[in-house]
Amino acid sequence: MARLGKEERIDQRASRLRLKPRHLPYWRTVSKGLHIGYYRGKREGSWFARYRPAGSNHDYIKTRLGKCDDRIDADGEGILDWKQALAECNKWIDGLHGDDEQPKDLHLTIRDVVVAHIADRDARDSERAGRPTRSTASSKLKPHVLNDEILSRILLVEISESDLRNWQRRLVQLKGSSKQRVMAELKAALNSVYEEKRRVLPPDFAIRIKHGLKPVFAEACQNESVAREGQVLEDDMVRKIVKAAIAKDTEGDFAMVVMLMAATGARFAQLVRMRVADVQLDQNRLLVPASRKGKGRAKSAIRVAVSKDVADALRIYCADRPAGDILLERWHHRQTGPIAWERITRQPWKTPSEMRRPWKTLVDELKIPDVVPYALRHSSIVRAIKAGLPIRLVAATHDTSVAMIERHYARWITDDLDELSARAVIAL
């Protein structure tokens, strides 16, 4: 450890005011490896603390304690005198140690946290898919966080709001909606490590993450809203898609997925978890599993009414099948020659990528190549809004929140309210 040299009397206000402003703090030893620092700026001073365990080769762990009472009396919160700064320093070091004599994980970097988060997400998605696969966390965090040398090497205990805001400003190659998705993945990684290691992290760590990852860019979801508007289909086009899927799919598996996506507005990941018992043919109703989004207690299945023709198609599809079977299945094939394949077994659908080829063939023939399967969900939500259903009911039947409906489908909500207002107008 390097010697500190002469220590200034930073515990006294008069002595502090005689110090010259400089870029580095004036440090004073509190105990072995622990120091309090006083930064003398041109206008005001600030308290800092740093710590390094004895015998460690790592750099010091640093934190800012608060402003100094050089010109304004201490209030015990944002402005601290020497005794209050010392108390905050001891509280900080106690938080680092926890119940152990030696602090743990003080030198975890953002890179360490993100790599562990990607591994967890990849393992989870691979288990669901039944084969090795990359998660969205991998595709978003590797190029935009791990390849960012400035952010990735910052220590977890030293991350600040300005570090996260400056990282946002470096995402110039991404559009607003894409930035938000990358930020959401990083926020998930940091929040997950906070739950596990909150005893060794600064008390305001969660607040730093919350405010540091607030969007600093003016463009939020403008492009996404325009794209959503282009993906809302008329009812006749939805019928054409379903009929074309039935005509093209001789096995009926892909057609059933398309039909249920159009009829329920549910996500692919929800539909593929349905079981035969979730089809209530007597009531023309389906029990769609809730999405895995969010946290907290398990959500109950969503009851969705379907038309009689959909119920009739399901009646044939479910005939003589055990109630506990996965509802949506498809044939898996094995290649036996250059252009020869043979059926192996029927297995559940696992990932949306399994829809890619038949969907592309379908939309190309209908001459709507830019339409994606998720358009069936957008169209279902807008259809419900136009029918005058309460927004809360629309959100509940589509397993989302009122805030998300209002944010992304505001145009159709406004149009519906204008029509209701017009009905109340009387001739005077």
UniProtKB/TrEMBL annotation:
The keyword Lipoprotein does not apply. This is Tyrosine-type recombinase/integrase. SUPFAM superfamilies: DNA breaking-rejoining enzymes. Belongs to the 'phage' integrase family. It comes from Sphingobium phenoxybenzoativorans. Signal peptide: none annotated. GO terms for biological process: DNA integration; DNA recombination. Keywords: DNA integration, DNA recombination, DNA-binding. Residues 228-422 form the Tyr recombinase domain. GO terms for molecular function: DNA binding. It holds the Pfam family Phage_integrase.
